[in-house]
Amino acid sequence: MIFLRFGFVILLFLVSFPAVASQIRIKDLVEFDGVRGNDLVGYGLVVGLNGTGDGLRNAPFTEEIMTNILERLGVNVTGEQFRPKNVAAVLVTGSLPPFARAGGQIDVTVSAIGDADSLLGGTLVMTPLNAADGQIYAVAQGTIIAGGAAARGDGARVVQGVPTAGVIPAGARVEREIGFELGSLTSLRLALREPDFTTAARIEVAINARLGRNVAVMTDSGTVQLDIARTQLRSPAHALAQIENIRVEPERKARVVVDQRSGTIVMGQDVRISRIAVSQGGLTLRVREAPVVVQPNPFAPGETVVLPRTDVDIEDEPGVGLAEVPPGTTLSEVVAGLNALGVAPRDMIDILKSIKAAGALHAEFVVH
Predict the structure, then answer these.
(1) Is the pLDDT of residue 333 over 80?
(2) Cβ neighbour number for residue 7 with a 10 Å cutoff
(3) CB–CB of 33/222 below 8 Å?
(4) In what order do the strands lie in the sheet with 310-316?
(5) Closest Cα to residue 19, out of 249, 344, 201, 231?
(6) Distance between CA atoms of 226 and 231, rounded to whole angstroms?
């Protein structure tokens, strides 16, 4: 069945007014130079699965890593034929936080890379985790907590969630520290997560007002340079502790984000629209296919045939009329008004697209 719907008729006259932003801490707006995590990855083996592991015939790399582990443990399996169903090859990923010290623990994520059905109840065997430089920085091991469930029978199978991926809280132990001496820095850069000249200038003014000297300088829309020597503090760590909780009012780009699959609409407070009129019809077209099977009489010559039968109709639904919005209305109020009129979310997304195409929506329009 084909179902096409063209929503309602709506007339909008819109004028916007300024909105007020809130103040955000500097540490929520910037990244401090050098204070960052490092991604880790490793290739390991999960054991103890209840018959839900890799099929070794379809995943030969699982058999290879299992053979290597057993040989390192002193078990000679060269030339042996074994097909266990309770092991699975996995990729282990994690992030080494800044200033992590040897002996600390971090969370890791375990994901199957073969044809395993589930990792529920499995145990990750000792797996080294490498960084981008190829060095081992942590070792992971432990029981996997998977976020799904799976069951199967002779004729059916049901899966809920993703049982082929899970996490091990505090499942990796840091074995090597990343060499970074924060205390030796004489200057430090603050990198804005959302580059903006106005926000960077406000951060510069706020830092200089707190420390009482011209220690911060905006170099571009995404960087504020901090001169540690002028702060007269004992270390860069003390300087960061002084400035990270300073609150600044950021400036954001006006942006509207829509998700067509779920009908979700998210918009920023700075979205503005000009005076415009939008109309959308109220037409519904339905096409139904209902084929009929015709069979010959018993013991009579002939063959069974299928005759097509199509039912087509068009409905012209009454619209909601014209809705006039007074001046001084924001886009969020317009969306609330459309909701009150019963406009479906996907019809609302089409209206916003039309407003953007007409050049009246003054914001970045992002569609997922």
Answers:
(1) no
(2) 22
(3) no
(4) 2-6, 283-289, 310-316
(5) 249
(6) 9
